[in-house]
Amino acid sequence: MNLRIPGPTPCPPQVLEAMRKQMIDHRGKEFGQIMLQITARLKEFYQTKGDVLILTGSGTGSMEAAVANTLSPGDKVLSICNGTFGERFADIAETFGASVTRLRFELGKGAELAVVRKALEADPSIQAVTITHNETSTGVTNDLESLSAVVKGFDKFLMVDAISSMGCIKLPMDAWGCDVVLSGSQKGWMVPPGLAFVGLSQRAWDAVAKAKMPRFYWDFKKAKSNAEKGQTPWTPAVPIFYALAVSLELMAQEGLPNILARHERVGKAAREGAKSLGLTLFADERYASNTVTAINTPAGVDVDKLLAILRDEYDTILASSRGEMEVFRIGHLGFVTEEDIEKVIEALQLALMSMGVITCST
Amino acid sequence: MNLRIPGPTPCPPQVLEAMRKQMIDHRGKEFGQIMLQITARLKEFYQTKGDVLILTGSGTGSMEAAVANTLSPGDKVLSICNGTFGERFADIAETFGASVTRLRFELGKGAELAVVRKALEADPSIQAVTITHNETSTGVTNDLESLSAVVKGFDKFLMVDAISSMGCIKLPMDAWGCDVVLSGSQKGWMVPPGLAFVGLSQRAWDAVAKAKMPRFYWDFKKAKSNAEKGQTPWTPAVPIFYALAVSLELMAQEGLPNILARHERVGKAAREGAKSLGLTLFADERYASNTVTAINTPAGVDVDKLLAILRDEYDTILASSRGEMEVFRIGHLGFVTEEDIEKVIEALQLALMSMGVITCST
Lengths: 362, 362
Hints:
The structure is a homodimer.
Chain A: E1 2-3, H1 13-19, H2 29-46, E2 51-56, H3 59-70, E3 76-81, H4 84-95, E4 99-104, H5 113-122, E5 128-132, E6 134-135, E7 140-141, H6 144-153, E8 157-161, E9 180-184, E10 195-200, H7 202-210, H8 220-227, H9 238-254, H10 256-276, E11 292-296, H11 303-314, E12 316-317, E13 327-331, H12 338-354
Parallel strand pairs in A: 1-12, 3-4, 3-5, 5-8, 8-9
Antiparallel strand pairs in A: 2-10, 6-7, 9-10, 11-13
């Protein structure tokens, strides 16, 4: 089965093998060593001298954790939204009592620097900015380096959902001045879902010290004090730690520059492949993501039927739309090669031919 | 290695084997079937016609979820506390803004019915009661059947931490009138940590409809509406679902009455075994837990050294104290037989002999 959704992604065989290891004491020496080793490696990939905490939960859990640990009810937050996940970050901040302004951009486009600058100028009381680095729903990667420079020009607190970008798309956390950077195990990290990661700058810890939103399970201070002992405050999803230790070793062997270059190649293969079939891309190519590609559903095509044919006849799992966009999506992150994507494009061609949507090989 | 802590517990080989299965689409048919099958089985073990939700997180996560979904800031809560986990439930309710009264009982004793009755009589404004069915820190099982009758006599909302009891110690949720009943995958269910379960009565759903504490990741309504489609609102810890499907099948084959009887036998084996070495039990035997036994650290013994000798020389992992109690603990729940516990007692005897604490075989 060629599983090509934007997470969970397939796992390498060595990673799956690690998952079958028997349980150990999560407050014992062996777990402590795994925890310390993983944390050190994650910090390398985050390119941060700050902290990277490991939480048991999904990426959305880490978004809630980021909000509840660094904000107080009534805090003014500017949420940059150009898709489902940008809206989700805003929803969470609102649910926990922040005063959220949503700065919306056209779906499929990147957030515009000038508009963000204007919004920050217009309201000096804004304290924090949330942004989705890679918007999985539309296949857009926002220009975080430039956006961060704008946000930092106004000295605002910057929270980044990098759930589907960290480890696959360039994001040096410290160099780009990000305060909170989120990721999830089932994305670029090539392990099953169950863990989320939170990178925190010193400024983030200062925010934690003042923040008054309620948190217990997600409490960053408890996570940090426990991590220093090689533990987690609550019982962690132990097997995903086993898996992560193996996958981070594989990633270190490949090296971050090579991993980023591979994602560039597979991203390009997905876009060029789709276009070679006469399909059109949802995202403006200037902002095209190298981890997920959203393809416009051709006129008259029942997308559910297309995805079912791909699954049942061509062993290929693609993702449906997450939102109102009339698209289907190819995930190409983590354990993925250009060959995997070529197979997706071949399957897509055959499925579209069987549906009578395209008539000849290209 | 004989891992005998109160979770994570060892997993049967078939369960570990299931953990290595490749990832699938968590919004696809196959996952939906697993989800529906697991949910139906969990309801059988919970003995409820209500709902059982599956959340990705630890047992503590489910406690936070229970609080945030059913209470509003300012709600008056009576927290029955006779150990670390009873206090934790109270801490969480307080953190989220409830007005908590802690009704404390001596550690190692069960909560007393008359005292609970008096507390409920004394303050009619109490809306909800939290209780730990099985207090893992002290090895006490509270008499939930009787306590629930008292609480229900006052028509209060009852939230039960059954994290280390459900599936191993008798707890028919509906028959005993419990509104929220929590459990965790790494306890009696014989699977790795990563999932938590929440049983909910109709009254619990009525509480959810009125509750104003903030929740997003843990939102029960989102979990329920997604579960009806065989999905979870956020990306779930997929491999633990694979494992749980296998373990629930094993549990169904054994049958709940046999499982409960086995836990009675291993509980007794742990207590009798400890006493046969001249050790004393922390918990009043009238309330002795069949899933965890806390043993008083003999005078003059360095408990860390004892646990290290057990681990390094006798391949036996026991748990240290969780709190101020001078104890160490044997977990005997889930994948456990009397033989496993006999081996623990043998190891304990040899370790204590090597430390000069006991001098002859018994």
